[in-house]
Amino acid sequence: MTSLSPGSAAAQRPKTVVIADDSVVVRGLFARWLGESGQFHVVAVAGDGETAVAHAGRFHPDVMVLDLNMPGLGGAEALPQILKESPHTGVLLATTLTERNARIALECMTKGAMDVLSKPDSRGGMTLSLDFRSEFLLKLSNIAQSPARAGALPPEIDLDFTPAGPVNLRNLVSVMPRYLMIGASTGGPRAVAKVLADIGDALNDLTTLIVQHMPPLFTASFAEQVSAQIGIPAREPYDGERLSRGTIYVAPGGRHLGIDRKLGHLVASISDAPPVRFCRPAVDVLFTEGARHLGSAALGLVLTGMGSDGTEGAGALRRAGAAVIAQDELSSTIWGMPGSVVRARHASAVIPLDGIGSAIRDLLRGGKPS
């Protein structure tokens, strides 16, 4: 999470919030939590999309909590109008967990929504769940602070490789990678889709594994969306499934994705083990097991997201001889995960989102065969 100095005006000013939800109970609950936190000021509430759009234009809030299912103009239809009225408002989608809502939410995240929060099925479950409250406040805090990014790395951080122009990763690896492992969280769906589209048909030469922090159902819809967009098979793997080149494997929501070796073949390992760094699936699990079984044949990529998941695993990859790319700060929605990797000096390269796919394509064209 980005920190602000206690004496700064930005640190002292509560972030402004508009809550758009058709439930009076939910609006009241969210408003109470936000008020009690001391970090936020709810400037308005809305029970439908039309009112949410009007409030965006009037108040220009730092954050809007937007329910997908509202009467009249729903959240998905209201989103582009909200961002047109207030382009700098960060939007957190709030929705119940269904396949339909997952598809809609993912589409919204390609159109500017920053993150999604899965609401419990019942109001009682929402009221009593301390985990849900904590997640709600944490997501809002990170979204609200993301426009206040410093924009530059502290001078004491000595990166292994800081590109000012085209990136040549061939100097950083001893063999051509055959496995691409990607970790992402807040802002990740759009970033992951962008990177994969830019890599293009070169993905046919890779086995790609992705950990995107998402609830169950959302990850399956995300895999379908990716496959439809780039024309390469993408799916959630089953435990023990043999890993194949030219396929994209997405960690199931709420379960870890790792790598194991059985009968001489590399297979996906799906686990319900406890969360790592509060995450399940965790990037650290995938990267650490990838380092153990793949070594320098792996290429790690850490994209936008809050927290520090992936840092420990990135260190394991580097020690195993693999390269690790971190998305740069200016192109990240939240520079938590990639920033943590950079600060730990585990990044082989720090690259803007627009340049990551082409850098990987260049590596695959000119890398040394193992």
**Number of E-state strands:** 14
The fold-level CATH name of the largest domain is Rossmann fold
Helix segment count? 13
Poorly predicted runs are 1-10, 147-166
Describe the main β-sheet briefly.
7 strands, parallel
Mean pLDDT: 87
CATH hierarchy class name of the largest domain: Alpha Beta
Lateral strand order in the biggest sheet: 8-9-7-6-12-13-14
Q: Give the CATH architecture of the largest domain.
A: 3-Layer(aba) Sandwich
Helix-strand topology string: HEHEHEHEHEHHEHEHEEEEHEHEHEH
Helix content: 25-40%
Rg estimate, integer Å: 21 Å
CATH homologous superfamily identity of the largest domain = Methylesterase CheB, C-terminal domain
Strand content is: 15-25%
Give the N-terminus to C-terminus distance in angstroms. 39 Å
- What is the count of structural domains? 2
The secondary-structure class comes to alpha/beta
Shape from CA axes? elongated
Entry keywords:
chemotaxis, alpha/beta, phosphoprotein, disordered N terminus, EC 3.5.1.44, Rossmann fold, seven-stranded parallel beta sheet, EC 3.1.1.61, elongated, 2 domains
Description of the molecule:
It catalyses: [protein]-L-glutamate 5-O-methyl ester + H2O = L-glutamyl-[protein] + methanol + H(+); L-glutaminyl-[protein] + H2O = L-glutamyl-[protein] + NH4(+). The active site is at residues 185, 213, 309. Its EC number is 3.1.1.61, 3.5.1.44. Keywords: Chemotaxis, Cytoplasm, Hydrolase, Phosphoprotein. With 370 residues, the protein is an alpha/beta fold. The protein folds into two domains: 11-148, Rossmann fold, CATH 3.40.50; 169-366, Rossmann fold (3-Layer(aba) Sandwich). It contains 13 helices and 14 strands. It has helices at 9-12, 24-37, 49-59, 75-85, 99-110, 123-128, 130-145, 188-199, 218-230, 283-294, 311-319, 337-343, 353-366; strands at residues 15-20, 40-46, 63-67, 90-96, 115-119, 179-184, 207-212, 234-235, 248-250, 256-262, 265-271, 298-302, 323-327, 349-351. The strands form three sheets. It has a seven-stranded parallel beta sheet with strand order 8-9-7-6-12-13-14, with helices on both faces. A five-stranded parallel beta sheet has the order 2-1-3-4-5, with helices on both faces. The chain is elongated. 47% of the residues are buried. Residues 1-10 and 147-166 have low confidence and may be disordered.
